[in-house]
Structures are given as C-alpha cells and as structure tokens.
Amino acid sequence: MSNPAQDEHTPGRTAPPSSDRRRVAFATVVGTTVEWYDFFVYASAAGLVFGKLFFSGLGANSTLVSFATVGVSFLFRPLGAFLAGHFGDKYGRRVVLVLTLILMGAATTLIGVLPTFGQIGVLAPVLLILLRVLQGVSAGGEWGGAVLMAVEHAPSKRRGLFGASPQIGVPLGLLLASGVLALTSLLVPGQAFLDWGWRIPFLLSVVLILVGHYVRRRVEESPVFREIAERREQTRTPIVQLFRKHAVLVLVAALVFAGNNAVGYMTTGGYIQNYATNPKGPIGLDRGPVLWAVTASAATWLISTWAAGVVSDRIGRRRTYVLGWIAQLAGVAVLFPLVDTGNIVLLALGLIILSVGLGFTYGQQAAFYAELFPASIRFSGVSISYAIGAILGGAFAPTIATALVDATGTSVSVAVYLAGMTVIGLIATLLLRDRSGIPLGPDHEAEQAVSPLRFSK
Q1: Beta bridge partners of 432
Q2: Of 82, 224, 273, 378, which has the fewest Cβ atoms less than 10 A away?
Q3: pLDDT tens-place string over residues 147-166
Q4: What digits encode the pLDDT tens for the residues 411-455?
Q5: What are the Cα distances from residue 395, in Å, to 273, 275, 290?
Q6: Residue 453: beta bridge partners?
Q7: Strand (E) or helix (H) holding 85
Q8: Full DSSP string of 406-439
Q9: In the chain, what are the domains?
Q10: Which intervals of the chain are annotated as region Disordered (predicted)?
Q11: Cα–Cα dist 262/19, whole Å
C-alpha cells in the first residue's frame, strides 16, 4: 500500500506536511513582497521625485538619468544571481533568502536618509546609485531562492500554484509601494512631499524587514537540497557546470522573462507614473490619482498571477504562456491609446487590461524555470536566467520608452517596442518543451539533464 505522504519527487522519502508547505508559501510571499516593495518604491520615486532632488544639476536630462539609475541596478543582478546561485547550490536556499532580505532592507532604509543634490552636491547621486546597486545585487539573489523554496516543497501536480506564491509577492510589492506612495502624497501634498514626504516609504522598510526576517527564519530548508546535502552531492562549481552544459538554455529562458519584464516595467519601473504626471508632457495628471490607478492595476496583476499558476497545473506551463503572450499583446495595443486620453478612469482601465497579460506571462514562471534545470545546479540556473532576462527586458525599458517618445514625439513608438518584446517572449517559449510534473529530486538528475530545448537532440 502506498504512503500518501510519500514524496513524489524522491522515492522513499517523506514529503513535508501540508502545514509546512503552507508556511513556506506564506514565507515566500511575505519575503518577496518586502523585497519588491523596496525595489519598486525606488522605481516609482525615480519617476516622481529623484530627477528633481538628486539629478537637478543635469537640467532637461534629469528625468532620463533618473530612469537610467533604475536600470543600473539590473546590471548588478547577475552578480547577485551568481553569488546566490553558487552559495544556494552549495549551502542551501534558506540562508541566501535571509541574507538578501537584510541587504535589500538596509539599502532602502539608507536611501530614505540620504541628503539631496542641493545639500551635498554630486555626492548625493553617487551615494544613491551605490545603494541602488546593492538593491540590484539583492534582487538578483532573492528570486531564485524564493521560487525554489516554494516549488521544491510542492506536490508535483500543484507546483504552478505553490510557485505562484513568490510571484504574487511582486505585484503585492507594487501594490504596497504604490499604495504607500499614494497615501503619503495625500497626507503630505505638494512641496512638502518633495521636501521630506517621499522619505517615509523608504524608512518604512525597517518595519517590513523585521517582519520578513522573522517569517523566513521559521521555514525549513528545501527537501531537495536537504537530500543533496545528506548525500554530499553538492556541486563544487555549479555556475561552471551550468554554462558548460546549459548556456543556450539559460539564454532562451532569459528571453522568456525579458518579454514579460520589459512590458511590466512600464509601471514597476515608474514610466507610466512619470509620463502621466509630467506637467510638460501631453497629459499632466495629478500624482495621487495616477498612483491609485497603478495600485488598482497591481491588484489585478496579483489575481492574474495567481490564476496563471493554477491554470498551468491544469493545461501545462507552455500553453498558459501562449495564452498570456496573446493577452499581453492585446494589453500593449490598448495601453497608450487609453492613457493618452488624459482620462484617469481610462488610464486605470488600460493598466488593468495590461496587467491580465502580465500575470499570465508571470505566474507560472517559477514552476516553469524550476523544471528546466537539474537539481544540483537549479539555483544557479533559475537565478542567472532570471537576472539576464531582467537586463534584456526591464533594465532600461523606462529609459528606452522615454528616449523613443523624445525622438518620435508619439507613444506609438513605445507600443511597437513593447509588442516586439512580447513577440520575442512568445518565440522563446515555443522553443522550449513543457516539462510540467518532471521529478525534481536528485534521484532523477539524468532525466532533468536532458535538454528541454525543442531544437536539441
């Protein structure tokens, strides 16, 4: 008679109880929410205030350079991914998650107390960029550990659902960041917001980091890594092995995420916030209503992200992605025509429509990535693919969008750029086989090592 608690990944081992799985899911949601709250508060502030406060010496180019600092952090995500992948595959997922959370929170809090350009001159933007670099290193290491903790604890038929837990933390982080900024803007309006009110969301990170640290310290290590450690089968050079055997797979997986990330950073990167509120731009809406519209879109993104994880358990990761790319393309097509009306309700509608496609090209990503790579190098594989995809996709999407509008005088050019990135994501998805339900434990390393690329033998 079979044991219902038997782990389907690794014969002979006992699966974590459902209560432990729920605790892990909750911990990944809380921790990832805190991480991305920090990350998105910066991106939103870059579009709203940093150009005036830290880059005012650059005149007309201040906003463009402010957006570029959002992208600078992405250049350091691979460093975070390399470090986290190396230590995560050697020493475990949990320790990396705790360290990245502390690093992100410390950097965010310090931004909240930085003097501005008007107070200390050029040193202000230099320090701001250095702290943004630390945020990038942290974000590069965070995601891989969070998704593996969730997916490797999950039953094989519910990996999409459990893997959506850390994914939900991203729209939750945007929801929290936009909501806090909107509330702060309401309570501290006008010039006071520029003078000191913007600092409040950054300083709140201290409280959030304590909550996230407490929750994450209470979860058990991934059962897959525990077994690898017990067998003393940790790979000594996981990154070398990854690129020696799976370099093309890393690039294709990165392009899948790039297609989602470029479009997502229209809001998470602060571009729409700046585009819609710029008094010299074509719309000139008030800051508060735009932030509330972004908050509503983040709530939609959260729901669609969760739904994508559930759907992917039923119809497969690849089919869910294809549906998502089609929905995202439709969202890109209607976004700027609705935003350019200058009507806040239609702007919110455009963002909400876009968020449905964003969720359906994101919710299943954790399970999809985890099923692509062998157990011994999985942390390195998912982290580095994610970090490279972030550079190719969202790193400079707000900067590119700003430059396109400046060069062409129309938002149509931005829509064409986003549609192109969506098509790239679709093509990359079609190049990969669906491996939903493949065993994840070290007993099945040989099966996992078979390339999921459709053009490979």
Answers
A1: 453
A2: 82
A3: 888 888 888 899 999 999 88
A4: 999 999 999 999 999 999 999 999 999 998 888 888 988 999 998
A5: 17, 18, 22
A6: 432
A7: helix 77-91
A8: HHHSSTHHHHHHHHHHHHHHHHHHHTB---TT--
A9: 18-449 (1.20.1250.20)
A10: 1-20
A11: 37
